[in-house]
């Protein structure tokens, strides 16, 4: 199979082998084909594009799995492979007649010309260019690494490809020689379906050297032949056809071919066992075509959990992660329960696949024991250079931070374990770690300081916009200024200024600016760019809907805290067209949060009625469960308030100096979620809110959870006395 991959330098052995092959074929140089073709690891004389680093190889003994035979692919069960597919733009043909012919010759020409040129001295691609071109590809390959951890995956994935050549027989060789004498598909297409299927089966097992010899073979015609005859295959032959198409070239499959294959897969789905479903699912993942069929497979697998081996469970997690879809929460929980029982025998690649499934499918993590088990593995293996690698560490930390429960001791153990290693980590790892802690509001000063120091050691080529955003969001959310805070924040802002990609990733750029407002940092040149007409157009075209609440929040914050700013602002027409709920949108009313209704009831009692207070979001861009506005006259008596539900930003700014003799109070109920865990320190956004309320003329009255919650067990008289003291003293 010939699949395209990013250019890389090849060893002298590889070049020698390639040179011999070219000489044997009496090769003549031809211009590179226009088709985008890539080289896979199934080609014997290629060097894989991505090598696992030493730390990525598991030190523990690989688990022993119980094998389960499959009915349709028993003859395919030899060997393993690490099949790497690369997503590339594909041509969509309007009809079979207009479909371009892709020949084996053009593929080999393309691959050899590009890769041998890259291998010559002086023609090496710079690490920066290679990283830019291959980041998505390497991530895909890295996720597939678990398939090489155990032979248990041989029967249910494209690991089967490496063993295909061992099954190539003299009968296969004779058949291919006989049918390919003229290098054309015309003779083959006139054969009975059974012989065409046999021919495709032989292709699926043919050595790479044999595939090289078929220079006149039109892969598009082979694909058409396969799709025209698949309904006459049995299940074993159908799998052989898929493997043949995969080995030849998946880009030769037209939209019509794929539609035919998908319909045939749907027709056969209910007759397949677990291994066959996973094998076919892996084929669809490998060719990198968006298909709803894998969702059908996952729904079918949800009824077969009892038939799964441990390897099947892990591979099902892989399919969930790649599809970013889980049929149901119950199905995911069943898989999680099975995984928890065998987690100690998992390699870290397998643990990473399980964690990635929860992350990509955006599923809730309901199993506290599973979270504890993954955390224990982190603490156990972080000091082993050959066990837990950085890729899986990041995935595991993201998994833990998604849980709907939190163990303080567990995160403290993880922090204590990670701190000595932060200085030596690749730059992209520490931002993910502190983001995981910030998500659950867990503040660990030594860890934050270590990450702050590591951030200052980065060169510009190390830093992505995503890393800048994660660092800014984490530190600003936790409202923490490290000892080197001046340099830390100025360096991150400078990275924002220098990153040419920021308009290619406008969402992360905007969220970085909003995070800076938490700590009262307003880089005017970046704000001016963020509100420029070109940027606003980019937001409309490239960003999810929540970008508008970030724009609105930034615009309001600039108006309140930077009145001297004279650059671009958010146009009113833009606000009206794309109005979204502001930052911290109040999805749950205060009546549903324990303890808050008692505050409102108590204030109504001591002030003289509901007309003397307004429970609503005072600032239009920051909405929290309970803000209460109260006005007192010069004699500290409560004043009646109008029934207008909310004030606009312009009204707040006009009334910032207030009426003479009138004191405006902002009574802020502070639930636990507004504070760091196990702390009385507010999160950054709530510090900003109080700062801005003061700037528009309000006096802040705090009713924090650590004072109010104990009073819920006291008498009503005690609660009223507490509120009176807060307001009138």
From TrEMBL:
Keywords: Mitochondrion. One of its GO terms (biological process) is mitochondrial RNA processing. GO terms for molecular function: RNA binding. GO terms for cellular component: mitochondrial matrix; ribonucleoprotein granule. It is found in: Mitochondrion. InterPro entries: FAST_2, FAST_kinase, FAST_Leu-rich, RAP. Residues 665-725 form the RAP domain. SMART domains: RAP (SM00952). Signal peptide: none annotated. The keyword Mitochondrion applies. It holds the Pfam family RAP. This is RAP domain-containing protein. The lineage of its organism: Eukaryota, Metazoa, Echinodermata, Eleutherozoa, Asterozoa.
